[in-house]
What does this fold into?
Amino acid sequence: MSTYKVLEIKQSVFENNDRQANLLREELKKNKTFLLNLMSSPGSGKTTTVLRTIEALKDEMRIGILEADIDSVVDADIVAQTGTKVIQLHTGGMCHLDADMTRQGLSGMGTDGLDFVILENVGNLVCPAEFDTGASKNAMILSVPEGDDKPLKYPLMFSIVDVLLINKMDAIGIFNFNLEAVKERVKKINPNIKIIPITATTGEGIDRWADWLRTEVKKWNGK
It folds into this structure.
């Protein structure tokens, strides 16, 4: 009979990350800093949505942005032009951020005096869904050109987010995208999810998105 030991490495990694994420969330709660983990596929419009969010809330909240990419500083350069506090995180080939990486980013940027931080996660619908970053809330963007079948193909991502932004609604007439089908599919996976159609380039729907954020930040801060 075999006597060797079997170690479930993946389970161990997730358990350790979950502990670190909970600790980070407690610290953020204590410091009254709301952290939003924003996820999506590449090209969905994350950075444009971040810029619209800054524009909508900059006069009400002190905002910081964590830009995560495998390489480049393109997005950080764009955000920096708004005058918002920003730091670029290079993952060195990693397709996601975990709680420890997020902590490093927050520490490097400095969160003293910040009410609201957006973590723009690596563009990917698989890996980021598996790792708790310690965020206060999770959000994702699904853009119309990606298709309405994504909830069927990537159910984990849709199951762990609190709000879904459906971006590029101005292109819905060009693509074979069934908005009601998406809503139905997503609600089966995640009945409590908030769904907000937007067009980040024009600002359509950003007011509803900003209202949701205002409410959640106030709850986080006990107001």
